[in-house]
TrEMBL record, chain A:
The keyword Cell membrane applies. This is Cation:proton antiporter. NCBIfam families: PRK12600.1. It is a multi-pass membrane protein. One of its GO terms (molecular function) is sodium:proton antiporter activity. It is found in: Cell membrane. The chain crosses the membrane at residues 12-32, 44-67, 73-92.
UniProtKB/TrEMBL annotation, chain B:
It comes from Lentibacillus populi. One of its GO terms (molecular function) is antiporter activity. This is Na(+)/H(+) antiporter subunit B. It is found in: Cell membrane. One of its GO terms (biological process) is sodium ion transport.
Amino acid sequence: MNNLLDITEKLVNISAIICTIGISISLLLLLIRVMVGPSNADRAVALDGIGINLMGIAALLSVIIVTTKLNDVVLLIGILLFIGTLAIAKYLEKGVIIDRDVD
Amino acid sequence: MFKPNDLILRTTTSLIAFILLGFAVYLLLAGHNSPGGGFVGGLMTASAIVLMNMAYGMETVNKILPINYRTLIPIGLLIAVATGIGSFVFDVPFLSHTFGHFTLPIFGEVELATAMLFDLGVYVTVLGVTMTIILTIANDQEDGLEGNEIGEDSDS
């Protein structure tokens, strides 16, 4: 029984490390898209993807170093990502982020 | 000037702003023995109000939240200083904090610390400062020339 627990723990650790490597490759590819993206909208979407990958890395890190204190960080990154993407989209469309008076 | 259709943004905002405010209160209250505290809580509240500003415009949000954010800064500083001065009443040095166990009707036995009141002062001050900065910068389009130029550029 104890042996099974050890194997499971090792399996979780190994898969978390493999997932971290995969997300790192994805982050590098997204970084290339941010640098060479022809239009500004391409860069905005790539930044959105980078933020989502960062959420994944934070969650995997809380699996590797065994802690639950990083759950707030994952939620925080998601919220800030949403607001930032919204601000970029609004700037690209209208030119102002906070307008004084809508309709 | 074309008129955009913001229906999805507005519906999502009215839902997400509540989640953000709840998360801010959670961060403020959980700061004693897990990550969080007054600073992050104030920033989360400010981001919820900024989200409402982005979706509904400044005038509408001023109508439903008639707060002058500049007055929040001295209020927060006063709360923080008052918790420090309050320790003189009990004949202990400045800013010494204490805690005690109380039995509340619903929550049962909880540990209440006076450091929470100091955190509340930090929360109010951070909220006031952040909203003052953001809304002052956003108000800076009064001459109409620069704002219109940027708007026309993005249309082409």
